[in-house]
Structures are given as structure tokens and as C-alpha cells.
UniProtKB/TrEMBL annotation:
Protein name: Membrane protein insertase YidC
Residue ranges occupied by any Membrane insertase YidC/Oxa/ALB C-terminal domain in the UniProt entry: 39-259
Subunit description: Interacts with the Sec translocase complex via SecD. Specifically interacts with transmembrane segments of nascent integral membrane proteins during membrane integration.
InterPro entries documented for this protein: YidC/ALB3/OXA1/COX18, YidC/Oxa/ALB_C, YidC_ALB_C
Predominant localisation class: membrane
Cell compartments where the protein resides: Cell membrane; Membrane
Function, in words: Required for the insertion and/or proper folding and/or complex formation of integral membrane proteins into the membrane. Involved in integration of membrane proteins that insert both dependently and independently of the Sec translocase complex, as well as at least some lipoproteins. Aids folding of multispanning membrane proteins.
Keywords attached to this entry: Cell membrane, Chaperone, Membrane, Protein transport, Transmembrane, Transmembrane helix, Transport
Membrane association type: Multi-pass membrane protein
Annotated CDD domains: 5TM_YidC_Alb3
Length: 265
């Protein structure tokens, strides 16, 4: 095993264990264990568990973003003070003053990315599990916490005629069904991503100078993140697209609630 495989192994087990737990519970309630809808709901259950666990991180992110907005006048004053000074000593002094300013306000420029960064290993683990289903099924093996029988069940399961383990780029099953479902979910998740960034930007940009670095960053994220998700979606299995679509819907809902009911800094 390489280093990355070893590092990701606990995440694969955790992700697959949550999916299997939901799958077994849904089977106990009367749903057919081998159907695509049972596995789809298991993936949605995984999203709900991960995103619910990240609520404290999200709230901390929102507070950090608001502190970041409040420090913009001080940051602008600092940048004006060092404007035109390009020597090494001035650049180093400016960087130190900026860090002191961030510490004073209890925030940093990367706070907006924290929930996404924390969620990344779980997403990668799910991608590895679902993209490895076909290979594991061919070898008659399990993967993560999924038994051999569950791997075979998942491999043969589908929704709307599209196998959950198939992807737009690599195909599998009925290509038309896979393409229609994949494109539909890619459009939904990129639209959610765009609307979420639009909400964040509308709160961040309110009353701010258009030349402000934070404003420029928000404008870039507004268009770059949806493009990244849209392009990346062609590589994702249908099951992973289900995860990201539901996760992005959750994020949009969270941001909408925050926009309607501002929290104290």
C-alpha cells in the first residue's frame, strides 16, 4: 500500500460503514436491499451525517467571514501605508502586520474554505469506494465495510436506468440514462454552488470597495467553484454525484438561513 492509500483507509471504512448502516436500517424497514434507491438513500444518509457533524464548523466559518468583513477598513489602511514599498523588509513587515490584524479579529483569509477542506477526505473516500465497486465485484471482494454481497448488490443497482457505479466519462450501463442523469445532477449542483457563492458575496460585498482584495476573491470564487464542480462531475460515478448534489443543496439551504437570520459576530 502507498502512503495515500494507508491515510485514506480509515475514511473509506468510516464512509462505507455509515452507508452500510443506513442500508441495513432501510432494509429492516421493508425496502429491498438490492435496489438502487436503497443505496441512493444510504448515500443521502451519509451526506446528512457528515453535514450535520460539520454544522459547528460552518457556524465558525460564518463568524470568521463576518470578522473578515469588519477588518477590511483596517486592512485597506494597512495596504495604503505600504503602497509602493516593494523592498523585502517592507513586504515582510506588511505580512507580519496583516497576520497581527487577523489575530486581533480572530479570523484569516482561508476561513471560508474550512468546511470544504474538512469534507474533502470523506468525499475522496466515497469516490474511492464507489469507483472501486466494479473492480471489487469482478474479483469477488468486499471494499471498506461493504461485504462481497453488498458490493455485488451495489454494482447491479441503478436509478432511472443509470448504474450508481457508472460515470459520464467512463460509461457503464445504458449510456443515455447515465448521461441524462449525470448532466442533470451536474447542472443542479453547479447551480447550487453558484447561488451559494452569490449569497456569500452579497453579504461580504455589502458596502465594500470594489477594489478590496476580499471582494475580488469572492468574485473569483463566484465563477471558479461552479466551473470546478461542473468539470469534475464528468469523472464522478452517479453515486458520488448524488452525494455532491445533496451536499450542495444542504450548503445552499444553510447559507440561505444565515442570510435571513444573521448571527452575532
Amino acid at each position: 500500500m502507498d502512503f495515500f492509500t494507508v491515510v485514506m483507509e480509515p475514511f473509506r471504512w468510516l464512509v462505507s460503514s455509515i452507508m452500510v448502516a443506513f442500508h441495513d436500517w432501510l432494509g429492516a424497514t421493508g425496502m429491498a436491499p438490492g435496489t438502487g434507491w436503497t443505496w441512493t438513500l444510504s448515500i443521502i444518509g451519509l451526506v446528512l451525517v457528515i453535514r450535520a457533524a460539520l454544522i459547528p464548523v460552518f457556524l465558525a466559518q460564518v463568524r470568521a467571514q463576518r470578522r473578515m468583513r469588519l477588518l477590511q477598513p483596517d486592512l485597506k489602511e494597512l495596504q495604503d501605508r505600504y503602497k509602493g514599498r516593494t523592498d523585502q523588509a517592507s513586504r515582510q513587515a506588511m505580512a507580519q502586520d496583516q497576520m497581527a490584524l487577523y489575530r486581533k479579529h480572530g479570523t484569516n483569509p482561508f476561513s471560508a474554505c474550512l468546511p470544504l477542506l474538512i469534507q474533502t477526505p470523506f468525499f475522496l473516500a466515497l469516490f474511492q469506494v464507489l469507483s472501486g465497486i466494479s473492480n471489487a465485484a469482478g474479483k469477488g471482494e468486499g471494499i471498506g465495510a461493504m461485504s462481497r454481497e453488498q458490493v455485488l448488490e451495489f454494482e447491479s443497482s441503478s436509478i432511472f436506468g443509470a448504474p450508481l457505479s457508472a460515470s459520464l466519462l467512463h460509461g457503464g450501463g445504458d449510456f443515455t440514462a447515465v448521461a441524462v442523469l449525470a448532466v442533470a445532477m451536474i447542472l443542479v449542483m453547479t447551480a447550487c454552488q453558484f447561488l451559494t457563492q452569490k449569497l456569500v458575496a452579497s453579504q461580504t460585498m455589502a458596502g465594500q470597495d470594489a477594489d478590496n482584495p476580499l471582494i475580488r476573491q469572492q468574485k473569483i470564487l463566484l465563477y471558479v467553484l461552479p466551473v470546478i464542480f461542473g468539470v469534475g462531475g464528468i469523472f464522478f460515478p452517479i453515486g458520488v454525484l448524488v452525494y455532491w448534489t445533496v451536499s450542495n443543496l444542504w450548503t445552499l439551504g444553510q447559507q440561505f438561513l444565515v442570510a435571513r437570520r444573521p448571527m452575532p459576530v
